[in-house]
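Q: What would this chain look like folded?
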Amino acid sequence: MRRLHLLGIGALLGLMLSALPASASSAPKVPDDSVTWRFGVDSTFGGTRFDGAYVASEGLVYFLGFRTFGDATDGSIWTYDPVARTYADTGIDMLVPISNYAIAVLEDTHGLGLYVFGGRDANGAILTTVQVFYPALSQVRVINTDPWPGTTPSACVSLPAMGVAVVQNKAIVMGGASFGTSNPPCVDDNSAQTWFFDPMAAAGARWTQGADLTMARGYITPAVLGSKVYAIGGDVNPGGGQLTPQSIVEVSKAFGPAWSDVAATDLPEACDESQAFAFTSGALEGDLVLAGCGQWPNANPNSYIYDTVAKTWTLTGLLREPVRNHAGVLLPGRTMYILGGYDCPGNLCLGDPAVKSEIGKGGLLVDVSPSVPGAAGDATPPTN
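A: My prediction, written as structure tokens:
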């Protein structure tokens, strides 16, 4: 009887303790489960395999060229004014027109510059050229002293594409791929290299090699939250230029000694060639949002939230139209903005880029699932 009495008291205490609120320090943050996307203003150009960067001093988003209609490469620099909601051609061109790049916004001795590392030119060559555009000066320069040093194990120049992040005024360039279909051709291969670029270092000494990724791959979607850098998804090129999307997510402390796959939860599905946004305040504080899921040669409209405390992915907020290789910018007011990319109605990507933009907002919102019209079209994948 005494044993039963003690068991009864223990059960009662357990119920009482379970009814108490968990402390903020011990309870994981409940993942936000809603992001709403709506169409924005169409661009007056068609762009894919490109990136944008918001410059607060100018109040403008800048695009440093793009792959455009007919698989051509256009080096013209365009802007988007998020207040007036208008696009404009600056009349300035990149010295070397490229696609397959990401922009690193960095301060150097000339002021604020928009840096791009390598990329792919109109002939399909993977380049080592480092270029910088200075919005305040309306100038483009080539940094001849410090070309992109990344290579694959086969000694091919690697194409990091969108795998570029910025921390403490330094660029972190991660992974890359090479292709036998390049001009001149090399071989199909994958890079695990990570490189750091310091724009304030002496000429010829701006690159430093960091720790290798745990999985060699290209077309990684990066995100930075606090002192941590995330390498989300990407592609492995197993041969013949047929990219294979990946679900792996790696994380590292900025400029840290190693990347870890086990310290972050992998994606619920394989995704590549996308955009990710990190939030340090607001309803999505501590979260990452993956805006769309490329699955070369196609894409789906799935948008995911990653709770970096609970380490959980939540499917939420479908894009209005599935795209991949789109530009993405976090605007003032924690507004996500994506533009262009390959248009993928019915999840089949067509040959020409989209002109549509989408605006995303996160928080305790009710998502209205879009109707994604099916469309028959040329499913032949465009050139990487």
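The longest strand covers residues 73-81.
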